[in-house]
Amino acid sequence: MMKWVYGSLYLFILGILWAVLFVGFNRAQVEKIDCKIICNVNIIGLTILLVLILGVFKPHSINSLYSSTAKAETLSSAKNFLTINNLIDTGFLHRVIVVDVVVILLLNSLSPFYILVQKTRKNAGIFLFGSTEAMKLKNFGDCGNIGYGYLEKIVSPIPEPAIFPTVRYRNYNRFPHILFADSRTQYDERLLVGIGLDENATQEVEITQAQLKSAESNPPRLTWTFRTGDDYDLLTGMVINFESDPTPQLQTLLVTLYESPVNFVVIGQWDVAVSERQRSIIYSNKDLIRNFSHNRGATDFILKIESTDNAPLPNINSVILLGVKVDISDYTVFNRDLEHGGRCFAAIKNSFLNEIDMNNDVKWQEYLNEVSNVSPDH
Predict the structure, then answer these.
(1) Distances (CA, A) of 124 to 32, 120, 145, 216
(2) How many CB atoms lie within 10 A of CB 289?
(3) Pairing assessment for the beta strands 186-195 and 163-169 based on DSSP bridges
(4) 132-178: per-residue pLDDT in tens?
(5) What is the third-level CATH fold of 207-324?
(6) Among 26, 113, 200, 377, which is least packed, fewest CB within 10 Å?
(7) Residues 6+ apart with CB under 8 A from 308
(8) How far apart are CA 304 and CA 185, in angstroms?
(9) Mean pLDDT over each residue of the chain, to the nearest integer
């Protein structure tokens, strides 16, 4: 009876160890590490463990599992294989199994240290024998992360040593100028560089949905708040959705946008006409709000909707803000990183490009000829 208890326990441990091996393989695949040493030791150790567990059982234990004479040949083969029990003491096998289990668990517990050693050795090699440029490229990316690789191609040849192009990312500013010469400290809007941007970054998209903060009846007023999260160059408009059909008569809503709940500086104000039976309004700002949301973090905008004639406000279900993350309408793109699907680009302001042509500025013309890889109308 005890033999079956021990056998079940060993098989349970074996299942756990195989699960550990499976997790190890998956982790190696996700973290893209070399699994040969750890995984091979696991396989060898688990195979030995399986053989030893089988060796603990005496042949008569197997006999009790088989009553059918049809399985006699299979049973005979199993007995021949398990005669190791006659050569080696069972207690010795128990001790070997315990040692094998401890070794496997120890190796798996040391695997994070093994990964750390691998990464340290690789990074130390770059630090000791690699160049500063190689380290910057590894840590700050080419067309991703801060985009050091792409910026180096665009920034280094700029003929004016003090300027640094305006750089836009898919979310927030990373202040990449600190990776370059101390002299390049002046951000210059004449040049624009985009890093890691998809095609939607330069088009109008939904920024976010505002949250209703308060509702007042005298005078009728709704206060909404919203955060952009990412940086946006333009606020282009909004979508106002109603819970039901508005009142039959024409009504004008006064929509005011404030910079923050701290200073309440007005940065935009619009008259939005609501016609009868209109379930939603897509309002486009005639005067776009430029440099709309940069480096704001968790600071809220305040949006107030009021009635111009003190009439009750319609039941507004939601307000969605529209905008453009990176505005290139006044720029001409002269370089795209085609190796990364054009997710990085460099552009020059149209007014400055005309100035270069009018003044026949040779230095800037040579710069554009050197770094351009797309036609101006691309």
Answers:
(1) 19, 6, 22, 64
(2) 17
(3) parallel
(4) 777 787 788 888 888 899 999 999 999 998 899 999 998 888 888 88
(5) Jelly Rolls (2.60.120)
(6) 377
(7) 252, 253, 254, 271
(8) 39
(9) 78
